[in-house]
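Interim report, section 4.2 (structural modelling).
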Amino acid sequence: MQRTPLLMSRLIDRGAKVAPEAEIVTATAAGTRRQTYRETCQRAHQLAHALRDAGIGVGDRVGTFMWNGSRHLEAYHATAGMGAVLHTLNLRLSARDLEYIINHGGDRLIIADADVLPLLGKLAGRIPGVEKVVVAMEDGYEDWSTSLPNAVDYEDFIADRPLTFEWPEIDEHSALGLCYTSGTTGDPKGVEYEHRAQYLHTMAICMADVMALSATDAICGIVPMFHAMGWGIPWSALMLGCKQVMPHRFTDPARLLRLIADEGVTMSAGVPTIWQGVRAVLEARPGEYDLSRLSRVTCGGSAPPPSMIRWYWDTLGVEMIQGWGLTETSPLATVSRRVMQYAHGELSIDEQFKNVAKAGQLIPGLELEIVDEAFRPLAHDGESTGEILIRGPWVCSEYYRNPQPERFRDGWLITGDVGRIDAGEYLVISDRSKDLVKSGGEWISSLDLENHLAALDGVAQACVVAQPHPKWDERPVALIVRAENVDIGSEQVVAHCATRFARWQLPDDVLFVDSIPLTSTGKMDKKAVRARLEAEGYRLPELRQG
Amino acid sequence: MQRTPLLMSRLIDRGAKVAPEAEIVTATAAGTRRQTYRETCQRAHQLAHALRDAGIGVGDRVGTFMWNGSRHLEAYHATAGMGAVLHTLNLRLSARDLEYIINHGGDRLIIADADVLPLLGKLAGRIPGVEKVVVAMEDGYEDWSTSLPNAVDYEDFIADRPLTFEWPEIDEHSALGLCYTSGTTGDPKGVEYEHRAQYLHTMAICMADVMALSATDAICGIVPMFHAMGWGIPWSALMLGCKQVMPHRFTDPARLLRLIADEGVTMSAGVPTIWQGVRAVLEARPGEYDLSRLSRVTCGGSAPPPSMIRWYWDTLGVEMIQGWGLTETSPLATVSRRVMQYAHGELSIDEQFKNVAKAGQLIPGLELEIVDEAFRPLAHDGESTGEILIRGPWVCSEYYRNPQPERFRDGWLITGDVGRIDAGEYLVISDRSKDLVKSGGEWISSLDLENHLAALDGVAQACVVAQPHPKWDERPVALIVRAENVDIGSEQVVAHCATRFARWQLPDDVLFVDSIPLTSTGKMDKKAVRARLEAEGYRLPELRQG
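Predicted structure of the assembly:
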């Protein structure tokens, strides 16, 4: 067989070849901005020329500080083709973390959206390796300015460059991208993506049993392109030539729904908090949005409550595909579909949704194990619970310039998630290992409690965290955001938990709050919740008299 | 990222893990024989033990002389896992060719179905490298015997072996399989398949825009598993755990239809002659078969007439997916779906079927060119016609122990097919280069004429071949198999051609025949047609008076 390296440059130009007129739609203040795949491909090749002329070569790091939009896609395309390394900077990081990852990653040039330029500008003088900043301007930001060095407008940067760049043939294990995990403890840790791994991932998510991405789709990736390669959607879309609809900074649920309806989106992807917000708008304004073309949404980042998955199916006929993965797994590792086997066609709808509530089955090519504290493999019986290990061709083997060998063992990644695997090889996530409530030598899953609480009428959002207890070690406390105009009390919340959980698993306290803090990747930030409770001098009820 | 070799052993056990109870159904004289994926996987591991105990190691060649059935699947599974090389022997080869490929391939052991054992037995004494023959017995063949050395019953061979074999870690470029092309000229040429290439192909054909193979399918692969890895279906099925329905030797259309209906088959795959036969039975016996679960059939090996593709859609609602590829391309290279882009949803059904009539768009990862005689690339304008070149990670780079460098150029395979590529990057096959009719310096596509003739009422099958002409070099002659109880004449056939083709492209003669000879892979054997005409002293009409 021919020795063809698995380079992203072999895939990314394909969409423009097979579907040159397919559209890439970017939301703007006034509406949308549209360009074809042919134009996008030519502009990406022009960007590659401009980057090369700016001194960027194979292996050099190019940062992006951008929303999901056509120019971010061009940056993906250009850097992958030319062999540079795309370092996607999370727009929601603190200035301190941002400074750390730009310097640690070694970014030589940053492409930034004009509206977030001020955030980046705070780092002026603190990111000495950055030689140039390229500013992607949208309507309303014509007058951008910055104290960062050598700032140039994106359009000026690529103007008049040749429309074709001869992509170099490099080693398939070469670096393609860099993404830092949101890092709930210590400094952010970088995951370096490689061509071969992402090539395989790009094919895998197009498989019928994974996301089934197709050229016939109009895909709206809401998950930011600065999260783990946007779950791989930008790459697959470039390869397929499917219509893409990109929300840019306009991610409030009503605006998203308008975009999805107007552009005939067939498939979307985002974290559970997005879909909770979208649901709330749909419930408040029934019939306002025509979602008849929408067939499926992928939900990951954290586990969606089963009641929400069911709501999307029953109300909209939309299949919510649950996926599980980590920045470290490129990122998709397992996926759960409503019908995953020929025999599932005969299951009742309720039984089908029991499977959908699980994190899913492993994508072909990956391997999964659960182990006890001594790293002994546990049975796949749906009961035995342990640390989840994973390995395979798109799983990372160390962190970038910070190997952290304790996170790896015998070629496996120790995921930091705790779960069980049932006889059907479905993975069920119990919790992040650091979010488990350890009570009296037993584990209580904060996730199970949250999912159960999310199904209670009147609960908009639920968050369960551990609080210290002198006898039991830890006890669970529930924080509840009430739905609008609904008044429920602690007794109802605890009584609802008691319909499913044992007495010792019930929350010791229920706190009603206005909101739950989120991490930079849109997950509930339990570290922040615990820190706030500590700062407030919170104590469990039975300890207050002391 | 982890350095995980792309070995088939990482994929083939997955089906039994995720769907242990899914069924593998094999047709038998009395009905069907059924086993689960769990059993199949265990039996494959047992077979690997038995093969190892018989002296088969990594890289050793194991021949199979078998129909599509569960034991053939076990042979795929076992050899791939243990690193042996599966040499699939075509049951329809002449004894001479069979002897050649067994000896040339270096087979050390052959697994044969009992019913075809006599065919293999003819080679007794002429295949000295074969140390053992393992006989897979089905009902009615309990009393098999053979003069071949060391024959043993398959069940005795694997009995009492351990249920788990530790698959070795080998280089991903290691040989996986061996398949000889049917070879219309000279000795058959062997294509050696490798793990990495077939791993990628296995993933690719599961992509939504390719065959969309899914664990929710019940797949009936009619294409023999001795043709180019059965188009990759056995591998994908093992990986997915989908239900498999295997016709064994019972491939007459009525029996196939009974099997497809009874087993709720959702997807099938075979050459055009199979689907023509199936169509004839369906037309003769309307309403007899419940095909409500069948959603798509893949058709390849040679180009299906567009009228047949349309018939399956209009009559059954079944999408016929046209695929193009060669033994040398592992085999799938292009694929044509009814709707291949978001914008195609707005095309009329007639326009959609114009695309379906083409060989299709390239599967991601492959590259295609058409070139003139001097190997200069031709425009992708839908007009320029030339030799088709292809390259990519599952395209072969030489023939096994017979490199044939003239079939390769600058890393490209010269396919031997002639065609054009349109602005939508659809490949349209004009002909096999050796089947083109070269008339007066122009080319006439025998395929275009055949497709047009196949749409004429009363024509069951049409075959166009070149015949020598002193002035024009070659002129086309049409051979027609009439549909049952229909009487059409030469004038109607030529008049039908004249509705689309220019005068100089019309056949000079129409011959009505009872059947068209087929090659060992089920294609019309034009070499045999031409040889028969020559043996009969055939001359074109205008040359007969001389």
